[in-house]
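Subject: mismatched residue count in predicted assembly?

I count 1291 residues in my input, but I want to confirm that the predicted structure covers every chain. Input:
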Amino acid sequence: MALDPVLTAVGVALIVPISLFLGVIYSFLLRKITARLQWRVGPMVQMYSDLAPILGRSRILQPLYDVLKLFGKETLVPDVPHKGLFKAAPYLSLAFAVLAVFFIPFPGLPLLSAVPYSMIIASYLIIAAVMFTIIGPAASGSPWGAIGARREAELFLIAELAFVVSLFSVAYAQGTLTLWNLAIDVGRPLNFVLFAMAGVLMFLAMLGKLHIKPFDIPEAETEIVAGPYTEYSGKYLGMFFLTRVFLFYGLVGLFVAAFLPPLSSSLLWLPVYAAAAVLLVFLLSAIHTLSPRYRIDTALVSYSKLVIALGIASFAVALVLRLVV
Amino acid sequence: MSAPARILRKVIRKYSRPMTLSYPSTAMGEKRYSQIPPKLRGIPERDLEKCIGCKACYYVCSGRATTPVMVDGKLVMQINLSRCTFCGHCEEACPEEAIKMTPRFELAVRDKTRPEMFVETTLDMAVCACCGRPFIAQKQLKRSFERLNEKIDKSVRDEVAADFRKVEQYCPECKRARSVGLDTHTKKHVWVEGA
Amino acid sequence: MGLGIMDKARIYSPWVYHLHCGGCNGCDIEILAALAPRFDAERFGIQLVGSPRHADILLATGCVPKQFIPMLKRVYSQVPEPKVVIAIGGCACGGSLFYEEEPENYAILGSADLAIPVDVYVPGCAAKPEQIVNGIVQGILKLAEKKRGVKTEPVVVGPPPKEGERVPAPAPAPAPSAAPGSNST
Amino acid sequence: MAAVQPPSPSPSPSPSPSRPSDLMEWIKSEVVPEGLEFRMGNENRVFVRVKPEDVDMLAERFIRKYGVRIIHVTGVDLGIPGSDIVYLYDFSKQRERLVIALEANVPPERPEVPSVARVTWQASWAEREMMEFLGVTALNAPDTRHQFLPFEWPQPAESQTKQQASTVMKPAPGAGAVPGEEKWLPVGIRDAYSSLIPIGPYHPGVIEGQIVQVKVEGESVVDADIKTGFHHRGIQRLIERRGYNKGVFTAERVCGICSGAHGLAYVTAVENLYGAEVPERARYIRTLLVELNRVHSHLLWLGVVSDVIGFKTGFMLTWGIRERIMDIIEEITGNRVNYGIWRLGGVSRDVSQELAQRVRSIVKGVGDEAKPLLLDVAAHPVLRSRLVGVGRLSYAQAFNGGAVGPVARASNWKIDVRMDNPPHAVYDPAKISWEVITEDGCDTMARTLVRVRELFVSIGIIDQCLDYLSKTTGEVRIKPREIPKNAEGIGLNEAPRGELAYYIRAGEGNLPQAVRIRTPSYRNNALIPFMLIGSNLADVPVIMGSTDQCLACTDRFEVIDTKTERICRLTWDDLVCLSRKSSGGA
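Triage response: the counts match. Full output below for your records.
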C-alpha cells in the first residue's frame, strides 16, 4: 500500500498524544485493578465530594500526574565520572520508545507500519528503549544501580527471546515482515492455533518487559532499594516513567496488531480494539496480583524452559502452516 | 486446583469489595468514616472547676508531659501533647477526676506551639501572709480543708477549723519559722514565751 | 500554564518515604497500616517509595538516637527540593517518654525537629493510621505552598520546652481552609 | 560454627513439681556442691554467690551435664564494692520453673572474669555488652569489639588482641567518608573479587535501622555482619531513675509490636521481687492481651515477609484481617499499640462480660476466615520456591547459638517460656488447653509454618480466656506490697519473637538499682549472619525478616555481629551508598 505522506504526517502528529493518553489509561487500569483485587480502593476515579476541591476531582490520570510532578522537582545528579552517559540515557530511551510507537498500527492510522520490514524496526526500537534503562543505571555508580542493571540485563535476555520468537513465528507463517500486512489479513482459520501459542509467548515477553510482578526483579524495592532507578530523581526519573508508559501502549498495540489481525486495521474496529486492550490489561494485573517475585536465577531457569518449549512449538506450527497449507 | 487459583477465586469472591474507610472525608456517611471505640485513650481534657492544682498528675506522668507552670502569679497545669503518651495514668491518679481521656484523636498541626497542642487549666494561687510568695492553689487549700472535715468526728470539728484558719495563710517556710509561736504547735506547753 | 499544572501535579501524587530515626517502630507499623486496605492511602495517589531520591514527603518517626544523626541529616539532604517532613508520633514531635532534661538522656538527641526542619506534627503514642493519613493530607497542602526551585532554609528549632518554662502562645492562625476533621492548618 | 560442639540434646525429663525445701537439697547436692551462700527468691528463683574464678568451670558443668540454656549475662555496677556479674541459667527442663542466678562479685581494682563465651557461644554477645558498659573484661573472650557504641569509640577492654585491632581501622581521609561527620566509620580492606553491599540503615526492606554488611560474589553471599545499636534509647537508665510504677509505661514502649509482652514481663519481674499474688480475673485478662498481641504480631510478620518477597496481595490481605484484631485490642485497652493496662498486682481496666461475649464472636470469625487463606498463601508454589531451603539453621546451630522462640521451634527445639516458666498469667494446661508447635524444616518455610500454626493456637487460647471472662466477675487489682530492700526478681515471658527476660534488683528509695532487659531479637539477630552465608542476595531481606527481628526491641541495648571461626574481615566502606554530593542542576 503506497505511503501517502500527508496521511502519515497527520497520523504521526496525532499518535503521540493518543499513545500517551492510552498508555496512561493502561497504567492507571493496572494499578486500579490490582488494588481492587487486594481488598482496597486504589487511585480513586471519583474523589470524595468534600475533598475534591483540595485533592482534585478524579485520579484517572494518576500516572500522568506522577510524571508531571517529577518534572517539577529538583534533579540531583551523582558526582560520578561518566555523568554524560548518566544524563543522556533517559533522553535516548524516551526517544526510542516514542519512535517505536510510530511503527505500531492504530485502528484507522496505519502510520509507518506499512513501511517494508516495519516489524523488525519496531522490535529493534523497543529493544533500544529497554537497553538504555540498563546503560543509564550502570553509569550511576551506586551498587544498587549496578545490581539493578545486571538483573535488568539478565531478565532482558529471556524477555527478548520470547518477544522475537513470537513475532517471527507469526511473520514466517504469514510470509510478510511488514506489520500492516500482518494486521490486515486474517489468513486461514488454522492461524488461530498459531496466534494463541505465539500470543502466550508474547504475553510472557510483556511480563518481562513491563516489570509486571513475577518478573519485576530489577525493581524489587524491598531488596535493592529502587533497582536501576535508585540514583535518578526529578526529570530523568520522569522520563524513565514516560518510557514505561509509551512501552505499555506500544506492546499492547503490537500484541493486538500481530496476534488479533483484523482489530487494528480500520477505525470501525476501535471499540473491539479497546475491549481487547482492557482485557489484556486485566490479565496482566491478575498475574501482577497473584504472584510473588521470582529470584533472578530461578526466574531465568523456569522462564526460559517455558519460553523455549513454546517457541519451538509455535515455529513448528508456523512451518506446517507455511508449507503444507 | 493450585493455590494461586484458589487465592484468585477467594479474592474475587470475598475480597473484591474494598474494606477501605472513607476517613478524611465524611461524604460517605458516618458509618464508613472510621470506627472509634467509646473508651479510646485520645486527647486528655481537663475540667476547669474540678482541678485543684494538686500536681498529682505531674508526679505520676512517666514522660513528664504534664508540667505545673507559673505564669504571672497564676498556676497553669499544662499538658504538652507533643510529649504526652496518652497512657491515661494521670486520669487514674487525679483525686478529683478532673482529667478525662476523650475519644477525640484528630490532631495534626504545623507549629508545635499552637494552643491545640496544650491542654491547660489556670488556677489562682494563695499568697503567703508573711513572705508574700504564692505557695499553693487556693482551691487545693479549700478542698483539703473540706477533706479534713469529712474525716474528723463532729465534736472536735469547729476547734480544728479554728486552728486550720490560723495555719492556712502561711507558706511552709514561714509556718515552720513561726510555728513554735502558734498555739497550735503540739509542744506549745513546753515552749515558754521569751525564755 | 506550565507551572500551574506541575504545582497541581505535586498535590496529586505525593510520594512518601519512611524515615525511621530510632523509634520503637509502633508508629512505623501504623504508617504501613495507613497503606493497608482499611486506610488505603493510595486513594490520594500516595505511594511508599524505596529511595529518598524519589520522595516528596518524609515521614519521620522516633526520637533520634545520637548514632542516627549523621545519617538522618544525609538522607534529608538527598531528597529533591520541594519536600515536606511530617513528624509522626510523640517521639518525633517532642521526644515523648525518652526525653529527659536534668539528668539528660545520654542516648538520644530528643525529637526529630532538632535534627531536621519539620513541617507537620502528628502527636500520639503510636499515632493512629487515621491521624497519619490526616497528617499526610496536611503535608500535601504544605507541599502545595512550597514553590518549585525555592530552597526551604532549615528553620532552627530550639529544644523542646523545659519543665516549668511557659511556651509562648503563637498568633492566631488564618481561617483553616484544610480538610475537615483536622482542626488547624 | 561455634567454638564448642553442642552436647546431644539431653532428654528433657518431665519437670517434677518440687517443694522449696527439697529443691535446695537437690541444688546443694548436685548442682553447686561447694559451700556457697544460697538465697531462695520467690517462685523457684535461686541466687547463688560464686567466686569469680570458677564461673567458667560452673558454666562448663551446667552446659555439659544438664544441657542448660543461658538466659543472660549481665553486670550491676555497685561503685566501691566493685560490680556484680550475674549469670542467669534456665533449669526449667530439670526442675519445674527453676532459674538459677550465679552472682560473682568483682573487685574494682581487678575487674576480670573468665570468659563464659569460650564455653558456650550463647554468652558471647552478653559478655561484649557487659565489657562495653561496665569495663569488666572477660579474659580471652573470643570477640571483644563494641556492642552498641560505634567501633570508633575508645575500647575499655584493653585486652584486645593484636589481630582484632587490625581489622578495625580508622577511616582513611577522603575514602568517600565525609570528614568530621563520619569519623566513627572504620574503613577496611576492599577485596578485589567480591563487592561489599551495605544494606544501610535506610533500606526499604528493613523497617528499622540496622546495617547489614554483606560480602557478595555475584549474587551469592560470602560473608555477613550486622551492626545495629541505632535504636538505643537508654531505656534501662530511664527505668532505674523513674521507679517501679512509671517503669511499666517505659518498659511497654521498648517495642511497638510486642509492647504487651514487655509489659507483662516487666510486671512479672517486679511482682517476683515482692512475691505478689495476682487475682484470677487479672491473670486471664493478661493472658488474653498477650495472646492478642501474638496474633496481631504474627499476622503483621506474615504480611511483611510476603511484601519483602514481592507478594503484595499477601501483605494486603493479612493486614486487612489484622485490622479486626487491632479493633478488638483498641476496644479492650483503648490504644492499638501500647496497651497501658499493666499494673503491679493486676490490670487497670476490667473486661465487662458483655464486651467479652461480643469480642468472642469476632475472634471466632477472624479465625475461621484466616485459616483457609493463610494455608493457601503458605502453599503458593512461587512463595514456597522463595522460602524453602532459605536461611537454614540446623538444630545444633540453634541449640548452641541460643535461638529462642519460633526460630528455635522451627529447628525442632521444643522450648516455650509459657510451658517452662510461665509469667504471672494463666498458662497451666489444667485451666487452658494449648500446645507448643515445633517444625523440623529448619528453614524460613518452617518458621512461617510455625508462626501460622501458633497463630491458631493463640486464637484458641483467646477463645477460652474470653469464655472465662464472660462468665465470672472479680476484682482485677491488688495493691502492691512494700518491696524488700535488696530483693532480686527475674521476669520471663514468651514474646511473639521468643523468650523475653527482665532482671530487676531492688535498690533503696523505692527505685530499682538495676534493670536488665534481654529481648528475643537479641539472640535471633546473632544467628542472622549464619543464615545469610551461602544464600542469595535477593534472599537477604527475607532471611532478616524470617527471624522477625525487632530492632527497637533489641536496641534497648543492642547487638553487634557474631564471630565465625575464620578470622572474619568485617569491613564496610562508605556507609550510606546514596551519599553522593548533589550537584543541583534544575
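Chain D has 17 helices and 15 strands. Marking this ticket as 'not a bug'.
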